[in-house]
């Protein structure tokens, strides 16, 4: 049984092709700015590696053997393919420097991300952002699996094992239609009453729902949800129609509160302020594009009291203070 041919070094094949073109190991060595013995040793090593005599050496110069001519032809195809590969990877790297894959929670997508993207475009108009919109749990999954390089969530507890940096804060408001019994109350609604009040909420995994549930648990109560819907807009219209209280971002309800279609409900002992947090894999270094998006999303290194700032660990599990 013959010994399998070992894969040659591409650089050695390039040297062989140069020897073939120049007709001389000495001339090839001169063009490569190497010593002639060094190039000769490389060619001998290549022949041993391939198990084929490639060059016929004489005092008049170096010529290819019949096998050598075949190897040079094949090497040309291989070297061309390697060059195409190198150019393709360079193109991919250049695209990666101009494109960032990010994922954001729905509330952030609707009320915060547009301003971030506008700021980013003002300083880096050539940078492209591929933005996926999902609830906070799904955003975390996309970051962990590498489907998104950078994520933005609005949960009160930092996800474990991810680097994170607070970029802002958002407050939830509980609001009702003018005809609801809570609309004209003079005393605040407490955690116990809110928990069983049929609050219209987002689906499980949403940062908005997680924030409400954790706020109630801190007071010893479990949420008994009313209508559940994966749409901020849908929940708002359901509340306006009188289906019950709704808990959503103050940003999202601002217009309806000003118009009087909804009324904010004062709360007692239920704190609904949550951080807006950028997350990315602990072992990853953000690309320049992702770092620019993070910078555009908000101030860095300026955490509010009770909120974590940039960290390699998300395992503290601290709920953010109001």
From TrEMBL:
An example Gene Ontology molecular-function term: DNA-binding transcription factor activity
SUPFAM superfamilies reported in the protein's UniProt record: Periplasmic binding protein-like II, Winged helix' DNA-binding domain
Residues annotated as domain HTH lysR-type: 8-65
Gene3D superfamilies xrefs: Periplasmic binding protein-like II, Winged helix-like DNA-binding domain superfamily/Winged helix DNA-binding domain
Keywords: DNA-binding, Transcription, Transcription regulation
Signal peptide stretch: none
Spans annotated as Disordered: 298-322
Pfam families named among the record's database cross-references: HTH_1, LysR_substrate
Family, as annotated: Belongs to the LysR transcriptional regulatory family.
Alphabetical list of PANTHER family matching this protein: HTH-TYPE TRANSCRIPTIONAL REGULATOR (PTHR30126), HTH-TYPE TRANSCRIPTIONAL REGULATOR CYSL (PTHR30126:SF39)
Protein name: DNA-binding transcriptional LysR family regulator
High-level lineage: Bacteria, Bacillati, Actinomycetota, Actinomycetes, Propionibacteriales
